[in-house]
Amino acid sequence: MSIRVVGLGAGGHAKVVIDILRHYSDHEIFCLLDPNPDLHATFLYNIPILGDDTLLPSLGGHGVTHFFVGMGGATRLFPRSQLFDKGLATNLMPVTAVHPTAVIASSVTLGKGVTIMATAVINADTHVGDNVIVNTGAIVEHDCTIEDHVHIAPGAVLSGGVQIGAQTLVGVGAVVRQGIKIGHHVLIGAGSVVVKDVADDQIVMGNPARLRGNSF
Description:
The chain is mostly beta strands. It contains two helices and 25 strands. It has helices at 12-21, 78-89, and strands at residues 3-8, 27-33, 42-44, 47-51, 66-69, 93-94, 97-98, 103-104, 109-110, 115-116, 121-122, 127-128, 133-134, 139-140, 145-146, 151-152, 157-158, 163-164, 169-170, 175-176, 181-182, 187-188, 193-194, 202-205, 210-214. It has an eight-stranded mixed β-sheet, covered by helices on one side. Strands 3-4-2-1-5-6 form a six-stranded mixed β-sheet. The chain has a six-stranded parallel β-sheet with strand order 8-11-14-17-20-23, with no helix packed on it.
């Protein structure tokens, strides 16, 4: 019996999640929803974009039981977390999408609605929270804690024992030294090297990473 799924968002991130879910023969993507009216009544990879999120409560009548968040979040992750909560509020279950080339240790714990992309590595005794993205080629070493709604961007590296607070973005190719604690709502710029703890609501960039402003 197949799982019928709706995607919340029809952008680039949705394309990647769709590709992952097509490796799962028991997942049927019924439709996509997106706030952009120009996309309504069009198709993405032959999947109809029916309208916006106001249609969510009606989809149970079409056998939809699960959802994924198709918004990636390149800077702020609050809209992504809002979509996740909206899906839960309509009694749908979040889909966890793990690309078959990802390497995940048996002792890793994954939250709900996680997306793990191609060639990502997550090592022993790491905890990954709900609605987290571990993007293409990212490495999360042993004993890390990643809270809800975090985005680890392509090629980023978390060394052992790193802690990442909720709704934080670790930018493309960034490196975080072992044992570092990073707060909530933090933006770490692409290519940055983080060698000191980062407090909540900060933007840090550079090598070594330095405070560049507040994220909220």
